[in-house]
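Schema walk-through. Below, the input block comes first and the output block second. Nothing else is stored per chain. Lengths vary across the set, and this one has 131 residues.
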Amino acid sequence: MMQPICRIMNPVLILSLLTGGMPLAVQAQPVALVSTQQLLATEQVNADRERIRELLARTEVHDQLVGLGVEPAEVEARVAALSDSEIRQMAEQLDSLPAGANAVVGALLTVFIILLVTDLLGLTKVFPFTR
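--- output ---
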């Protein structure tokens, strides 16, 4: 009775011991250190993106974009596709605008100009008059 069980179990145990004792072929990739400046720059860009998203979510901005014939969803997609330097530049322009109603108009103008430039470069197709 013990013989048939040993014939089955012996190869299974030998195989499990051999595979368990082998070193893993997959090794962890070395991780590069991130400097404090890189981390702070990333955090700043994320904060700037969020600030621009909040500005675009305002009803005044939404109404103004619709009035210009631009879909707000398209603007949000374009803002998400902007590079870090473009986001930083846009945030700096928002910082330099005066407070109040002019800030909303200035922000809209900034978004409009960015969309217009990307349209003229052929990267987007928002405005029909650029074709």
